[in-house]
């Protein structure tokens, strides 16, 4: 006990901000404090907070609702004393109050609104030893669920007690951004002697901030003209690289329309800085004459294990497939996103929520052709390629206790070839059919079993029955 007490440093908390100092520093003169004046600079790659000043006052927290720690400027009267503990050979900083919570086994979670966040709240509330905290109490929260990762300050997540878990990786956009997904996969395929043309439709990336912008545009224009000379059908999809749920997606077939779309997009560079021009699959496999795609979920855990959710689902369009001048702009034919389809007059006419379970696809495949297990196997293979392509990029700063659920979209053409369309962060969790009511809660609950429950083990945590997550690969280096 005496050895531990010799190692104790005192910590002061000023209106929610934490400040640490050793006994030696406390014995220093006021003059030394003034000389060491500086800002609050937490280095969260270590197991403690480094404070560059003790002569400071509270400054306001950064704006834009970004979760962060407040800065300290001038010294004020301490309100609460913290102590430094050594636990399992690792230095940990924890308040006496948080120590009590840790000993008692109680944990706090925060759920920020958006994307049917109520379902997350319901799942976490059923877990033993978990209590919901207010949004302002994020400093002491053990699990933070936020639909939008840019609201999180990953550099200020606590790597010491209390442990903080978040539902995003800091650089998930290396795979969820359409431009980055294609570029990373292209490099991976080149290294592994694979053909990206067998994985994704032809893509052209146009980056408005690139010094090669003109060349990027001309690459597409030249390719377009070469297809036109060959008499090949020239339908393309124009979509911003950083948006999802069908936003700002257009089908076009003329360079005149392409120019208009490009000019409009360049004026909205605050919303997105690049666009993808992707070859439209003009002969997709149809279900009852209507276009469809497949949504599957992929989980990357805090320890870099990757899982595939076998309970995917099919998203159908509301109107019969047709590709000509009169139907090219009809989004209820070409875009299967629920965010788009739910506004159509025929939404739900053929399937509740325009959705089918993935297993139901078996009944719509041509007799004697490829089987559903073969399609699923190919999707898993493609997903694994994309994950390995960002192995060194997803979490380069090695932030602890991050995990993420991604939504992958695939299309099958009439030759039964599987094509990757995109990968999404914050995939839709809205319950718009009985099918989703059955699979989404189970998918999320078991994802938490593989992440949150592993980090905070408890004998009363729910067990996994009839697992829906299948192990794919690991990104552990």
From TrEMBL:
InterPro entries: TTL/TTLL_fam. SUPFAM superfamilies: Glutathione synthetase ATP-binding domain-like. It comes from the Eukaryota. Pfam families: TTL. Signal peptide: none annotated. This is Tubulin-tyrosine ligase. It comes from Stentor coeruleus.
